[in-house]
Write a structure and sequence with these properties.
Length: 333
């Protein structure tokens, strides 16, 4: 049921006049009642007139009519509100994820890749008004999902990321960045952003990261770089056992932070280091705050006036009251 509102609620103060009207009616009625003084009532049969008892109903009908008019003057109405959200400054984002074997290292829990997938999915859910794409890279790179506004598709694509033999193992940072740039270079969005994540150094691919960052800068694409991995030693996969399970050993974590900072600085972005699950969450939250989307909400109000039935009721009550006053109750007035 729609809520009823009143455009002119100040008219409700007129209800304070009703008690005054009632008092005035009672006082005048006593004055207008005829009296006859006689020495004795003996010989008179006491009878009561039914119409005389009903005569006050005329005043009640007039009060009801007046009440209906007051409420009508207050303009009761219902409102149907519809919202339309319009993005005035859209952002296109491509998340470029390193899927090399080192992403299975266990310094983040349960490993780097799984920790990233959880955080990246939450990040996508918090960007309902932006278009997002997904690029994966190792020694080579490919677009897993083009830039789209369908968040369910992106979240599903992120959840399906895994280490496999589709891409040659290695870390081609330049390849991943160039592929991400290619997805955004023709975008008409007001802001274009790449979130580039790696856990190693560039050791594969035929495009240098510096060249890729120059291309990103040329197209006005901002790159946020994230180095994932703890400081010091971490459990890295180094071989596969006969049963198909990875074998792990402690190895030195090596990330080319100088390169990551250079890419971010050149394109107007920022470099982050994710040394733990908590830190990774904080990084994505910070990027989420840095890249805000301007939203314009248009609200439409559809009013339905409700005063007309009240005016009709008041008119009917007054007509009935006038009719009764000049017919059935005429002899009492």
């Amino acid at each position: 049921m729609k809520e009823i509102t009143f455009l002119n609620p100040g008219f409700f103060w007129l209800f304070l006049l009703l008690p005054v009207a009632i008092g005035w009616y009672l006082w005048k009625r006593k004055q207008q009642a005829p009296t006859l003084k006689i020495s004795s009532l003996q010989g008179f049969q006491a009878t009561s007139s039914f119409l005389a008892k009903l005569q006050p109903i005329l005043f009640v009908m007039r009060l009801l009519a007046l009440s209906a008019v007051i409420v009508a003057m207050a303009r009761p109405r219902t409102v149907d509100i519809s919202n339309e959200t319009k993005t005035t400054k859209g952002i296109d984002i491509v998340i470029a994820v390193d899927v090399s074997g080192s992403m299975l290292a266990k310094d983040l829990k349960p490993n780097r890749m799984e920790a990233l997938k959880r955080v990246a999915s939450d990040f996508v859910e918090q960007r309902p008004n932006d278009r997002i794409g997904l690029v994966v890279y190792a020694a080579e790179a490919y677009t897993k999902t083009p830039v789209t506004s369908d968040k369910a598709v992106i979240v599903d694509a992120i959840s399906s990321i895994k280490y496999d033999n589709v891409l040659q193992d290695g870390t081609g940072i330049g390849m991943g960045l160039t592929t991400a740039v290619n997805r955004l270079k023709d975008s008409k969005a007001k802001s274009k952003v790449i979130i580039l994540l790696t856990d190693g150094v560039n050791n594969a691919g035929f495009i240098e990261p510096e060249t890729a960052s120059d291309i990103a800068e040329q197209y006005g694409i901002k790159v946020y770089t994230i180095g994932i991995g703890t400081n010091g030693m971490a459990e890295f996969p180094y071989a596969i056992a006969p049963n198909g399970q990875f074998l792990f050993r402690m190895m030195q974590v090596e990330i080319d932070e100088k390169l990551m900072r250079s890419i971010a600085r050149k394109t107007g972005g920022k470099y982050f280091r994710a040394t733990s699950n908590t830190k990774l969450v904080q990084i994505y939250n910070e990027i989420n705050k840095l890249e805000t989307t301007e939203i314009q909400e248009l609200r439409y109000y559809d009013y339905e006036e409700k005063y007309r039935p009240l005016v009709l009721i008041a008119g009917i009550l007054l007509l009935i009251e006038i009719g009764l006053r000049n017919t059935i109750f005429k002899s009492f007035i």
